[in-house]
Description:
The chain is mainly beta.
Amino acid sequence: xxxxxxxxxxxxxxxxxxxxxxxxxxxxxxxxxxxxxxxxxxxxxxxxxxxxxxxxxxxxxxxxxxxxxxxxxxxxxxxxxxxxxxxxxxxxxxxxxxxxxxx
Length: 103
């Protein structure tokens, strides 16, 4: 598939805490529309933060590219971090700050 037929969203997930990410951490990132429809998703190994991600979606599935949102979660042996609200996709790359989630 040629690149002009794919909408690509890139970004970075990170958190403010100053801790080392333990081995085996996995970040899950989803691209959703304002109706909550998941348009693309990925799970990546996250040996540290920030961790970069790329999501690709068929542009015919996107009703309004200006209203795309990101949901993300980072699971580790020492805790879970995630988005507490959906994050708007902004231009070429979107930074997604994760917050510690109590289990």
